[in-house]
Amino acid sequence: IIKGNTVGNVSQILLSTADIPMANYAGVMLGDVPKYDPVLGSDKVTSAKFQALLAFIQGLSSRNGDTFGYIYIPNSKIDYPMVHCANNDFYLKHAFDGHPSDVGAIFVDFRNNKNIENNQNVVIYGHNMLNGSMFCDATKFLEKDFFMNPENKIEITTFDGLYTFEVFSAYATSQYDN
Length: 178
Known about the structure:
Elements: E1 2-3, E2 9-10, E3 14-15, H1 47-63, E4 67-72, E5 79-83, E6 107-108, E7 121-122, E8 124-125, H2 144-148, E9 154-158, E10 161-167, E11 171-172
Parallel strand pairs: 2-10, 3-11
Antiparallel strand pairs: 1-7, 4-5, 4-9, 6-8, 9-10
């Protein structure tokens, strides 16, 4: 969960203990979708960088009209497209390409507006996989060295912009916690 009073802040990442083991994950969700290649090395986001990333997510959108954007966290395996549809059930059991899959996809809560700036909170779902994929690396924010590393910000690219979120609080919880 990315939560904050203003765009650019993250007040909590809720981590589920509902791990789903999955063999041969590679290719299940993305198939032949190319991996995100962020242009690193500068704190300033250039319009050229955004245009390159925008072209990338537009390509994803041509494969799936539910594409919301892309999430990337440096020094982690979190490097995935995000989808958004009219409910929170479909992508729990369907891959990015819409095919049935117990792995699901990374998806944004149906109540969120597709423009991040029109939301007080943005809720992002993804399974915490035992094989290290999906949101498994979100648990790294519970490690002091990872949490304190200023490079480890959440980068989300949407059709409206490139957003960087600084994590200032992280804790483990169960899927039943309020």
